[in-house]
Amino acid sequence: MNTSARPATLDRSGALVLIVDDVPDNLALLHDALDESGYTVLVATSGESALQRAAQALPDIVLLDAVMPGGIDGFEVARRLKASPGTAAIPIVFMTGLTETEHLVAALEAGGSDYVTKPIKPKEVLARMQVHLRGAQQAHQAHQATQTRRALDAFGYASLSVRASDGRLLWQTPLARELLLRYYGSSGPLLPAAVLAWLQQHLSAAEREGLEPPRLSAELGAQRLSIALHQQIEAADEDGSGGEWLLVMRESSDLALIEQLGLALRLTAREAEVLYWVVKGKINRDIADIVGASPATVKKHLERIHAKLGVETRTAAAALTISRMHQLHPQWEL
């Protein structure tokens, strides 16, 4: 067979096929056809050896004879492969001379993805393999994407995919949904307007020059959300529509810093929180709104803070606090 005639729809480089059949002529016929088509081929002549080779080599697909002598036939091989986490995702194409409906149903119930009937026709086998290899590859990519998203969430990073032309959210991790809802009051089906405006403002430079735009930040009390444009997943159409982008978000918090500040300066929790916002440049009215108190209560807290720190003005209190914050967290910035 001329390899230049291989279909361009499937990259077979590295694809590993395990053929399981006890008939030498069948093995030779399929082995030659697959080898000429660019596949790497392993063979097994019994159920026991098939299970052993599958576990060791983890083939991309298994061509499995349904009826073989010995204690383990093809149906049992399929059931065991599907029961093992390491081989469960490998597609199985049964090769069988049994054409009764009950046998074909049994093949599918055992875990087969498809079947071909004997006598074997190599072209038919190759065509069926293409379909299932492509499906397995797509499923594997989808699984990897899901695992990546879960890993991001596990380490405190949230990710989402958005269509830049209209802001439609194509997918988002659970943590991303939670953060958007908390900081922007919406988790879909569209990206919040402020985030979409930031994205569209910087897209041209990102596409044209590959520059990473400045991160978008939002604050919620002593917690902050940072949003970064990570990468383009899919290019826009010729008319400018579409275009899929991956955004990564990370939440940071100064709550622990406020607690340490209170301990270091011998302040109550509320006094430490008020002092934190003084350092951030907030006036009493703003601080009252943030901490849920009245301006008069905030003023009383400040009077006690001045007395404990031995200062007379909020400017002096802020300066002393900044010095202490840098001692606690050298990387801290306003």
From TrEMBL:
One of its Pfam families is GerE
| Start and end residues of each HTH luxR-type domain | 260-325
Kindly indicate whether the keyword Hydrolase belongs to this entry. Answer: no
Which residues in this protein are found as 4-aspartylphosphate?
65
Q: Which UniProt keywords apply?
A: DNA-binding, Phosphoprotein, Transcription, Transcription regulation, Two-component regulatory system
Q: Which CDD domains match?
A: LuxR_C_like, REC_PA4781-like
The record's PROSITE patterns line, in alphabetical order, gives: HTH_LUXR_2, RESPONSE_REGULATORY
The Response regulatory domain, residue ranges: 16-133
Top-rank taxon of the source lineage equals: Bacteria
What PANTHER family does this protein's entry cite?
Answer: REGULATOR OF RPOS, TWO-COMPONENT RESPONSE REGULATOR ORR33
Q: Per its record, how is this protein called by name?
A: Response regulator
Which organism is this entry from? Roseateles aquae
Q: What is the organism lineage in this UniProt record?
A: Bacteria, Pseudomonadati, Pseudomonadota, Betaproteobacteria, Burkholderiales
